[in-house]
Amino acid sequence: MENQYKMSLKLEQINYIYGTHTAYEMQALTDISLEIHKGEFIGVIGHTGSGKSTLMQLLNGLEKPSSGRVLFEGKDIWAEDFDRKMLRSKVGLVFQYPEHQLFETDVLSDVCFGPRNLGCSLEEARERAKKALAMTGIDEKYFADSPFDLSGGQKRRVAIAGVLAMQPDYLILDEPTAGLDPKGRDEILEQIAKLHRENGIAVLLVSHSMEDVANYVDRIIALNQGRLMYDDVPKAVFAHYRELAEAGLAAPNVTHILHSLRERGFDVDTEAVTVEDARDTILKAMEKSV
Amino acid sequence: MGIIRAKEVGYSYKRLNDQGEVESVRQALNNITLDVAAGDFIAILGHNGSGKSTLAKHFNAILAPNEGTLWVDGKDSRQPENVWDIRRTAGMVFQNPDNQIISGVVEEDVGFGPENMGVPTEEIWRRVEESLRAVGMYKFRRHSPNKLSGGQKQRVAIAGVVAMRPKCIVLDEPTAMLDPTGRKEVLKTVGVLNKKEGMTIILITHYMEEVVSADKVFVMDQGEVVMEGTPREIFSQVERLKSYRLDVPQVTLLAYELRKQGIPLPEGVLTNEELVEALCRVRAAGEKQFTENGESV
Questions:
Q1: Is B48 in contact with A180 (Cβ distance < 8 A)?
Q2: Domains and CATH numbers, chain B
Q3: What is the three-state SS of chain A?
Q4: pLDDT tens by residue, B205-264
Q5: A-chain residues within 8 Å CB-CB of B179?
């Protein structure tokens, strides 16, 4: 139990202020406390400018909080003797449009870059790169190709593999499906879900698509103007669909449909957040009403 | 004849080696024939790599066809002397607002296009005001664009195009990088330009929800137009869309799933209200039958 408690990434009363003592001073995050455990699958939602990206960057030590503590497995990451290089390999961050960061002449070398930087030997780096590419579903036949010749979805998976090759325990993805077609979006999300399932990696998925979030995650962190608005299971968060709309967010469309049906006297469960659950509760309500 | 007309248009990207010889050829568009009526709201759907953006670039002569002909407002886009007229007729808005904004002040950014066209100063200011009002960004005219939200920036980019008074605006995934609020703002703006200003809109997108109010939808796959019709006609073909790596709006999918389970709903339900009303009707019919038969159905 003690051990399990330590396996976490924790924020304690975090405040973050940009441009302190300048005319542009702005508080990006206010009094955020939360804990992420190994193996969780979490969705992070919030309007543009709500502080999501700042939060993500605090988690792997790219930004330093103005006040409050970030604890990795119980240790303050800003303590003098803390190894932040290790932290950045353990907490992998995949930025938006990560394929823009591809740069090597072939796929395998590109994915090797991270582990090489961590000091792995060439063999070890290749080993890890191959494993990471397999995890994101990139076939061996592409390894020698230029990453720039791949399709958009493939490029993105190679870029994600570049982070996975550092073998993180926590993987943070900022809008991994932006700009992808519906199938490409499903493929990436399936791969991420599989990573989570099979390798036990904790995943933080930053997304504007409530439908995607509802389909995959077990917990949602909602930010509004730099404050923690909700931190709960999807059903509980989406039950606040009116408040979410006011915060520039939206519940999945099925939530709205179910609430409308309820107002019209259908005995549906308004907590359903996926199409399958909505279908089942509507079918049940229809049976009862006839 | 429509404002944009394509007849058997083909386009291929050529890859050259160090010696400038053709190394490989990739056919991006193949035998595209379409006709866009002035004032219509057109949506183009297709997976990544289906040729949507290549086609969009033909609409304002960034690219000209290798095969076939494309006319914009009656002008053949292969003729170099027509290029400027075509770009004045059809303006483009791209995915990333940050790549399209060049000035430090909103109103100067919007004035850039007309200024480049040699519009007199007085007229530029008039157009800047009109365009910013049309997209609902007038009160931000003195702001710095980099302090705006994504949706606001994209609306400024649209105002920049509107200020050039095009007859047609082509938007290539204008909402891909925006949050739900930003997406709504941009779509509302596009709707207003279409309905109030009578501009022809061509919207390219991956979000199925965004095309339900279009007059006509084209679906592309492997460089060809494979489906063409009203949103209802297109979205009633769930399985076929999936085969093109696409999807349907969530409400359409829910209705489709319910239909599969035997609930008699119409095909191609597009809005929440439609679904709710349809379910109410099914329930009412069921109750009627119940009282007539005296037993459950």
A1: yes
A2: 38-62+73-230 (3.40.50.300), 249-291 (no CATH)
A3: CHHHHHCEEEEEEEEEEECCCCCCCEEEEEEEEEEEECCCEEEEEECCCCCHHHHHHHHCCCCCCCEEEEEECCEECCCCCCCHHHHHHHEEEECCCHHHHCCCCCHHHHHHHHHHHCCCCHHHHHHHHHHHHHHCCCCHHHCCCCHHHCCHHHHHHHHHHHHHCCCCCEEEEECCCCCCCHHHHHHHHHHHHHHHHHHCCEEEEECCCHHHHHHHCCEEEEEECCEEEEEECHHHHHCCHHHHHHCCCCCCHHHHHHHHHHHCCCCCCCCCCCHHHHHHHHHHHHHHHC
A4: 989 999 999 999 999 999 999 999 999 999 999 999 999 999 999 999 999 999 999 999
A5: 47-48, 208, 248-249
